[in-house]
Amino acid sequence: MTYVAQDRPRIGWIGAGRMGFQLAAQLLDAGHDVAVYNRTRAKAEPLAERGATIVERPVDLADRDVVFIMVSASADLEAVTTGPGGVLTSPDAAPGALIDSSTVSTQVSALIRNEAAKRGTDFLAAPVSGNPKVIAAGKLTVAVSGSREVFDQVEPLLALLGRGVTYVGEDEVARLVKIAHNVFLGVVTQSLAEITILAEKGGVSRAAFLEFLNDSVLGSVFTRYKSPALVNLDFKPTFTMPLLRKDFDLGLSAARELEVPMPLAAATAQLIAGAIGAGHVEEDFATLILEQARNSGLTLEAENVPVDDGLSPQA
């Protein structure tokens, strides 16, 4: 174990997309020294106004105590760690710990864990559940796997990112937790689209149906915060359909490996593929409701009514 807990560790952050930007900002707002790398530098530049140092390559973060990573896919994780200019490629330094919050396969996660160990760097898999608005509301959750001792050291940093940090076990099991979570996300959203369209075709407005559902025991933080999109057809992306398909591919692959039948997930995966084929690639995955409506002979219109998403920012 190389990471040593300190009150103010020097932090590196790789990946300043929609999620990574907001989470790096949380650490900066808490007063931490944070240096940031993003493939498109311009997207990271606004963090400099909040006190971040912007670097040109991941390897420029090799001397940091803790480096967080949040990139889109397995290939991206390999690129920023072991690829040319990766954070694990410096001949002179290596981070004390890597905390990876990307959604990647368990195989690639294990590969990077092994490469980190060769450099004396601890590695935690720490995928998250949420989106930028969830972060602002203080409701992000994190599943973490790896060394329990290292987790205990970095937990205060992770706790700054949201309301719930759960240690789920050794090695790569947090990857499976996140993949299972995102498969459920897709299945629930498809089911929500189906019952909402059923109610609408029977003469009930989407706003009224979802208000009832959200106030019932079946309502959840998720159904409530997706309701404005389903009612008013505002599909500004929080999570796109291609990213959801990637996670379904990972989930169904894990299911085959572990001999777990997942008929609902398999059917939903086909519906997601159909939505992508219909052109829903840049919008939020809540556009599943548009395909459900089309398959049901309905053309949806925005209801243009105020809908509470339940995500008021924390004071």
Explain the overall architecture.
It is a single chain. 48% of the residues lie in helices and 11% in strands. The chain is of the alpha/beta class. The chain folds into 2 domains: 11-171, NAD(P)-binding Rossmann-like Domain (Rossmann fold), CATH 3.40.50.720; 176-295, N-(1-d-carboxylethyl)-l-norvaline Dehydrogenase, domain 2. Strands 3-2-1-4-5-6 form a 6-stranded parallel β-sheet, sandwiched between helices. Strands 7-8-9 form a 3-stranded mixed β-sheet. Helix 7 crosses helix 11, helix 7 crosses helix 12 and helix 10 (241-258) runs antiparallel to helix 11. It is globular, with a radius of gyration of 20 Å. It starts with 10 loop residues before the first strand and ends in a 20-residue tail after the last helix. The model has no long low-confidence stretch (mean pLDDT 94). This is NAD(P)-dependent oxidoreductase. Residues 10-169 form the 6-phosphogluconate dehydrogenase NADP-binding domain. It holds the Pfam family NAD_binding_2.
